[in-house]
């Protein structure tokens, strides 16, 4: 990737947890020009407030002011703000937007993306993993971003769990081969869950009634789409893995417990060396190795896709391997979305 790739002009549709994390990360990295934001919240002062103050990541280190339907960052960077219900109603072309990042999680916006005015628009990035029929390509940076072409218009950046899982599994599969395995994720609560017992929102069909229970007091078992999302990057991996998840009563940082049967016998030293080498050679901050006695809170704000906690790496028998991963499910994932925009810019050198 060329170091002199031009910065793209970006619009963010949906300024919730992921949209705000992307905005904060870009303020630090200056990877692109954020020229427009659309959010269903009609109160621009509240939009600015939520960017300034964050219960997970603390106060923003940059100034944010509101001026004439714009956010003004550090007194110089102007971002137009809209409050339209659909991504299709935002005049992205008036701001010369190259890339729209749809962080709304709303399927109605997903359906509208292919119909957007392409006067200047080159790509749309979706921050979830919808059915492949709606996409030109699914991408996890650090794994298959090199397959992108200028003609890939609607691109999925997958999901946080798959981003961590695939970043590790593809290394293992290439080095040793994988016969089968299991994945268990522990994921912090999400905004659609409840503080007190109530109706389970329609995230799953049939509904998962457990997700209507008080999120602050229980571990809540649930299905996970991580392996299904991973199969869009590594075809056939869903036939090799069983999986489940727990929603846990914490605010940030997920974990993944992975057990795999490798195609050949290996030693723990070989596995550790594989991930040490990957950390040294990688272009983006994908893999990090941890050897200290840390807990989930210690990884808050980590930009890595997956931190391999080598204290728990174990090998038994003729190739049974256990790994434990940590990942900041907001900041780490959003960092890859920002990297994806940087990679897209390199296509136009």
Describe the overall structure:
- The chain is α/β, with parallel strands linked by helices and 349 residues long.
- Helices cover 23% and strands 26% of the residues.
- The protein has two domains: 9-127, NAD(P)-binding Rossmann-like Domain (Rossmann fold, 3-Layer(aba) Sandwich); 161-328, 2-Layer Sandwich (Dihydrodipicolinate Reductase, domain 2).
- It has a nine-stranded mixed sheet, covered by helices on one side. Strands 12, 13, 14, 15, 16, 17, 18 and 19 form an eight-stranded mixed sheet that branches. It has a two-stranded antiparallel ribbon with strand order 3-4.
- Helix 1 packs across helix 7 (331-346).
- The radius of gyration is 20 Å and the shape is globular.
- The mean pLDDT is 96.
Summary tags:
349 residues; 7 helices; alpha/beta; Dihydrodipicolinate Reductase, domain 2; 2 domains; Rossmann fold; globular
Briefly summarize what is shown.
This protein is an alpha/beta fold and 349 residues long. Helices cover 23% and strands 26% of the residues. The chain is built from 7 helices and 19 strands.
């Amino acid at each position: 990737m060329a170091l002199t790739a031009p910065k793209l002009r970006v619009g963010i549709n949906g300024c919730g947890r992921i949209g705000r994390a992307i905005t904060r990360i870009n303020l630090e990295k200056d990877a692109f020009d954020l020229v427009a934001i659309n959010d269903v919240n009609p109160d621009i002062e509240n939009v600015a407030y939520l960017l300034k103050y964050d219960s997970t990541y603390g106060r923003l280190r940059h100034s944010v002011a509101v001026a004439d339907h714009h956010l003004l960052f550090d007194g110089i960077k102007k971002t137009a703000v809209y409050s339209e219900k659909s991504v299709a109603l935002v005049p992205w072309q008036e701001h010369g937007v190259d890339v729209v990042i749809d962080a709304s999680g709303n399927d109605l916006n997903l359906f509208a993306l292919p119909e957007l005015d392409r006067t200047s628009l080159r790509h749309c990035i979706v921050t979830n993993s919808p059915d492949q029929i709606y996409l030109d390509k699914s991408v996890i940076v650090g794994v298959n971003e090199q397959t992108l072409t200028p003609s890939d218009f609607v691109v999925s950046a997958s999901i946080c769990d798959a981003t961590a899982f695939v970043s590790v599994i593809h290394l293992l599969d290439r080095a040793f081969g994988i016969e089968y395995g299991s994945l268990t994720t522990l994921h912090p609560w999400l905004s659609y869950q409840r503080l007190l017992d109530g109706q389970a929102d329609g995230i799953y069909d049939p509904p998962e009634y457990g997700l209507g229970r008080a999120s602050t007091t229980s571990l809540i078992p649930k299905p996970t789409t991580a392996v299904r999302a991973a199969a869009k990057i590594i075809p056939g991996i869903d036939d090799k893995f069983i999986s489940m998840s727990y929603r846990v009563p914490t605010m940030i940082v997920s974990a993944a417990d992975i057990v795999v049967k490798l195609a050949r016998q290996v030693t723990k030293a070989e596995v550790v060396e594989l991930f040490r080498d990957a950390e040294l050679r990688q272009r983006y901050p994908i893999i990090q190795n941890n050897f200290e006695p840390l807990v989930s809170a210690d990884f808050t704000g980590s930009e890595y896709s997956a931190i391999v906690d080598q204290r728990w790496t174990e090998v038994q028998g003729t190739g049974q391997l256990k790994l434990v991963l940590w990942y900041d499910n907001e900041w780490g994932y959003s960092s890859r979305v920002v990297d994806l925009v940087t990679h897209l810019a390199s296509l136009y050198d």
